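User: Fold this; tokens only.

Assistant: Input:
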Amino acid sequence: MINEINRQLFLVIGLVLIFTGIGCSDINSDTEINSKSKTVLPISANNKGKGVLAEYNRINLRTTSKLVSIGKQKVSNNPVKVSKKDKFIEIIGYGIDDKNKSLSKFTYITLDGVVHKCENNIKSRVAKNKLGIKYHNAGFKKIFRTASLRKGKHQIKIINSNNSGSGIYLPSQTYTFIVE
């Protein structure tokens, strides 16, 4: 009985360490940029099947996703510029499961190759206007401390899941912003 309880306790502790990123040996050097985030884990493709996205099936299709704003600026063709003086940078966008014509179960973004889970299925007027009322809750957002970002160029990619959460789509586009 005690051995079974100990085994379960070690399993729970191990899962907590894995999901919080504590003690993960597969974190790459880019992780230091955002080390305060609890969701920092590398993309599995760079780490031989390890990392937060390793467990999901790859759907070899691109899906509809778009960044709407980075910080206080709308995203356009030109790189957005963000000031280090701002305490936080909010990244806002939308994404859907095109194949199943529904909302994605979850959304991740990669910032300079490091995966971050987003708050998703939030209201997005832009998605509603571009895609229809069915996708009104297709929005996502992620907030970073600007102090955790080095000065210079940064790249973001959006990764959406299917509606069941069992698979992820290929990132559809790379967005660039500059921290000054």
